[in-house]
Design brief:
The protein has about 150 residues and is mostly beta strands. The chain has helices at about 5-10, 135-145; strands at about 20, 25, 30-35, 45-50, 60-65, 70-75, 80-85, 90-95, 100-105, 110-115, 120-125, 135.
């Protein structure tokens, strides 16, 4: 097992958000490709979606998930992710390269700031299920107090 896979496997056991560098293949003359697959993501991918044309100043997200795992990429532009775990620990990640993705485990509240030219790509561990969402911050805080 190489060092990169060892680090990834250690993170798979973690319950905190972190950046995964997917690397890139190619050159400035021909362009680049980055690849996400089962061996370099901490979950099986069941759904893919993207968000774009977000007006300046709009803050998205404002929710957590009960079971869903996500990997967020800034395919284009800049994305700032504010993440809060179920214990009140805050994280801030600036995404600005398509070669790196942010892993977000379940039970993490997120808000998202995007430049108006940003394209956010999400790999998700589950099909869409409205019952998996925690959309009220007070409900999220109650979950924190139980833990």
């Amino acid at each position: 097992m190489n060092g990169r896979n060892l680090v990834l496997n250690l993170h798979k056991m973690s319950n905190k958000p972190y950046i995964i560098d997917f690397g890139k293949i190619g050159s400035t003359e021909n362009g680049f490709i980055s690849i996400a697959h089962l061996q370099n993501t901490p979950f099986h991918i069941q759904r893919v979606y993207w968000t774009y044309n977000t007006p300046d100043g709009v803050v998205r997200g404002h929710h957590a998930h009960k079971k869903l795992h996500q990997m967020i990429f800034a395919v284009h532009g800049n994305i700032t992710m504010h993440i809060e775990n179920e214990h009140g620990v805050m994280y801030k990640f600036n995404l600005n390269t398509p070669a790196s993705g942010l892993y977000i485990p379940p039970r993490h509240w997120r808000t998202i700031e995007m430049s108006n030219n940003a394209v956010l790509l999400c790999l998700a561990s589950e099909e869409y299920n409205e019952d998996d969402y925690i959309r009220n911050y007070d409900d999220f805080k109650r979950i924190r107090s139980i833990n």
